[in-house]
Structure formats: C-alpha cells, structure tokens
Amino acid sequence: MDRQAYTDWIKRAGVALICITTTLAVAAAPPLVVLVDTGTEMPMAGFQDGRLVEGFHKDLGLALADKLGRDASFLPLPRKRIAMAMESGQADLICLYLPPWLPGKFNWTRGFFPVSEVVVTDTSVPQPRSLRDLSGQPVATVLGYYYPELEDALGKDFVRDDGHSSSGNLRKMAAGRLHHAITQQSTLDYYLKVGEKLSLYSPLVVKNYKAQCAVSPQGQVAVSEVNKAIEQLIKDGSVSKIISNYQSRLK
C-alpha cells in the first residue's frame, strides 16, 4: 500500500469510526421522560386506559424529544405526586406549567406556550364587566388550583365552588347549578364543541400568559438543552402548528 492509499484509508476509517460512535451515542440516549397531570383535560391531554394518547402535552413532548434527539416516554401521575417525581428525577420535565403551581427547586424554561385564562358566565344572569362584579358570587373552580388574580381582585369575597375538573364545572353550568366558571379558553372551546350546549356571554379574560416547562435537577436533560429545543420549535413554527391542529378540529 503506497503512502497516499494509506492516508486515504486512515481518513475513511476515521470517518467510519465517527459515524459509528455518533450512532451508538444516539441509540444510547435515554428517553425524555415527560410528566403529565392525570387531571388535565382536552385539548391539553387525553387519556385512555391510563395512557396519554392525545393533546397538547403529547404533541409537545414528542416535538421536544425529537429536537433533543431522544424518544419520548410519558408518565401520567396525579397532581399530588408530581412534585415528588420531579424532585427524585423520576421524570425529566413537565410542561405547560407556571412556577407558582409547582413549588420546589426546579429549573424553569422560558415561557413559550400561549394560554388564556377566562371567566365564563351564562346568559341567565347579568354579564360581569370586571372581576369585581363577581364579588360574593360562587365561581366554579378546580380543586387544588390557585387563582391569584381572583383572590387579589375579590379578597374574602372570592367564593370558590371547587370541582374536580373544568369540564365538570361547565356541566354544572349547563345544568343551571352555577353561573360562573374559570377555565382556559382552549378547554372552553373544546367543551363547546363536544359537550352540552351553553348560552354564554363573551368570556372575561383573567390573564394571558406563556406557559413554561419545569426541568428536574435530577433528570437526564439540562434546562439549557430544553430552552434550545423550545427555541427551535418556535422558529420552525411547531408550537403554532400544535395549537392550530386542535383549533382546526373544532371548526
């Protein structure tokens, strides 16, 4: 073998070794374990036989895992077990959350997923023009959820009527048992498409915000990596597409 042939062989062998090493590294990457609150409803999350089968949480988890070069593994848990699972590293992250909802020493990504929280009122009672108009009136809320805007606006006159889910609260409204409920706009839109008919005023916006992901310090992925993946999802339009896919289903 002459010198040039030997040099070419070394180069080809080096390239092959790099390819093999890269392939093994990708294959060996652990899955991205994504926590999902089992109390979450469509379009955020849909469950079947205890498995996450559809919704924003699934689509977003798959998209993030893809950008991170991993498979996604979803871990549905009740809300009361989420903090412990995150603290122990049983899961890598949970998305579509805000820091006040999950106290603990977690690393938080940038806000990126638009959410609108609204109060809806049926047309059998006067329409509230501001949160103060709800003073002393029962508002359907979800057990365990925190509503700082209503608490700040109403103080002791914020009357909670806790239910287990937003859809259950909207069913109470349909049955005439309650006249006001706080929910997410996306949940309301989905319910109005698939649930009982409701005669409602235009929703009163409580707040618009961008939800984040909490990343476990004991997990297999760094918050900087997740932020980079989120940035890619924003730039390539994936976040908007995830939302629009469900909006188009409701038309």
Write the layout of secondary structure elements.
Layout: H1 3-28, E1 32-37, E2 46-48, E3 51-54, H2 56-67, E4 72-77, H3 79-88, E5 93-97, E6 107-108, E7 113-121, E8 138-142, H4 148-154, E9 159-163, H5 166-174, E10 180-184, H6 185-194, E11 204-215, H7 223-235, H8 238-249
Parallel strand pairs: 1-4, 1-5, 8-9
Antiparallel strand pairs: 2-3, 5-11, 6-11, 7-10, 7-11
Helix pairs in contact: 2-7, 2-8
Brief synopsis:
By secondary structure, the chain is α/β, with parallel strands linked by helices. 39% of the residues lie in helices and 25% in strands.
Task: Describe the protein in words.
The protein has 251 residues and is an alpha/beta fold. It folds into two domains: 8-113 and 211-249, D-Maltodextrin-Binding Protein, domain 2 (3-Layer(aba) Sandwich); 115-208, D-Maltodextrin-Binding Protein, domain 2. The protein has helices spanning 3-28, 56-67, 79-88, 148-154, 166-174, 185-194, 223-235, 238-249; strands at 32-37, 46-48, 51-54, 72-77, 93-97, 107-108, 113-121, 138-142, 159-163, 180-184, 204-215. Strands 1, 4, 5, 6, 7, 10 and 11 form a seven-stranded mixed sheet that branches. The protein has a two-stranded antiparallel sheet with strand order 2-3. A two-stranded parallel ribbon has the order 8-9. α2 (56-67) packs across α7 (223-235) and α2 packs antiparallel against α8 (238-249). The protein is globular, with a radius of gyration of 23 Å. The mean pLDDT is 91.
Key attributes of the depicted protein:
251 residues, alpha/beta, D-Maltodextrin-Binding Protein, domain 2, 2 domains, seven-stranded mixed sheet, two-stranded antiparallel sheet
